[in-house]
Write a structure and sequence with these properties.
alpha/beta; Rossmann fold; 9 helices; 7 strands
């Protein structure tokens, strides 16, 4: 039986290895480069800050528009809505703080369910003695006072007209916060005493109810935000 002998020639072994290495290197780069780009983009997306969710609160441009309307109007304005989602407490608070920079401001809370303004400004309205004269509470913000919703419960009635008549003599700006105006028992008294209002409502049906109520009570609508 004949045997097959394989002779290794040093030069012959090296020569095909050079082109093969080049092919492998180039091919690997072609495959790895897109992979690296993909990994880089994926990492960048994960590290990028997520976009904030849309809120019912107006953006800076919206707040500025409302402030311009408030500054051009008379001192007393009702902020009205049919639900908390359309008029969260942050809106009247931001507006009142801004107005306080131009003059004295009183923010009156008509949301007796939550008494939210007392919580925001850390006013313990539950400790007010009923036999004492109830007055607006100064806040930490210069020129800004609040009237907690609980005060109306302590007075056992909403004599809003007397409160507003006295406030008009003392404050440059008066805002009434009524996020549930259409379901309040005193809604007609509130609208009649206010004379001016800004509506916050995205639902057409509820917006129609608000407009009808305000029109019936001869309360002018300054803006629908």
């Amino acid at each position: 039986m004949s045997s097959i002998a394989v002779h290794f020639v040093p030069g012959a072994a090296v020569m095909p290895l050079g082109p093969l290495w080049i092919y492998l290197s180039v091919g690997g780069a072609v495959v790895l480069f897109p992979l690296l780009i993909f990994l880089f983009k994926s990492t960048k997306k994960r590290n990028a800050p997520s976009k904030p969710n849309k809120q019912s609160i107006p953006q800076n441009a919206g707040i500025q528009q409302i402030l311009e309307v408030l500054q051009k109007s008379n001192s007393l304005v009702l902020l009205a809505a049919s639900g908390l989602t359309d008029l969260p407490v942050t809106i009247p608070v931001n507006l009142a703080v801004s107005l306080a920079g131009t003059g004295s401001c009183l923010l009156i809370d008509l949301d007796s369910k939550r008494d939210a303004l007392a919580k925001v400004f850390e006013v313990d309205s539950s400790k007010i003695e009923t036999h004492l004269k109830i007055s607006p509470v100064p806040t930490e913000f210069k020129n800004l006072s609040v009237w907690p919703a609980r005060y109306f419960d302590l007075l056992k009635q909403m004599n809003l007209r007397s409160l507003l008549d006295a406030a008009n003599k003392k404050y440059d700006h008066i805002l009434l916060y009524a996020p549930y105006l259409t379901v309040l028992a005193d809604r007609k008294q509130i609208a009649s005493c206010s004379k001016q209002a800004i509506i916050f409502c995205k639902d057409d049906e509820k917006s129609t109810q608000l407009r009808r109520l305000l029109k019936t009570c001869d309360c002018k609508i300054l803006l629908e935000a």
